[in-house]
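Quick log. Single chain, no ligands specified.
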Amino acid sequence: MKEICPKLILVLVLAVVFSAPSCWAKDNGYCYIVGYSMQAKTAYITPVFVATVSGATYSEEEFVADVVLIRKMENQFQNYLAGQGINTADFVVSARVAYRSQAIAGIRLADEKKDFTGRGYSIKDADKFIFKD
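-> predicted structure:
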C-alpha cells in the first residue's frame, strides 16, 4: 500500500497538469449572424467573422459557445439593424457561432442563404456590421 499511494498520487497530479491547460485554451470560432422577418420576407446576413471561444468542442465542425457570447452577438446585430432604420421588433436574430474553420462557416452561410432564397426571402448582406468581441 505504501508503494501504491505515491505512484497513484503522481499519476493523478500528471493527469491534472496535462489536462487542465486544454480546458483553459481559447480558440477562434468563425461565426455569422442572421436576422430575418417572416412578415417582410427579408433576411439580413453578416459575413463570416471571428470571435474568441473556449477551446472545448463537441463535434468536428464546431466549438462550444457560451450563451453570453451568443447574446452579445445578437444584441450587437440588433443594434446595428436599428441603426440602419430597421424595426427590429419584426425580426428574429440568431447567431450561428463557433465553427472551427472559415471554410465550414462559409459552407453553412451559403446553405443558409440558399434556404432563405428558396423560401422567397430577399437576402440583404450586412457587410458593414463589425462584431466587437
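The beta strands are 26-37, 42-45, 49-54, 92-99, 122-125.
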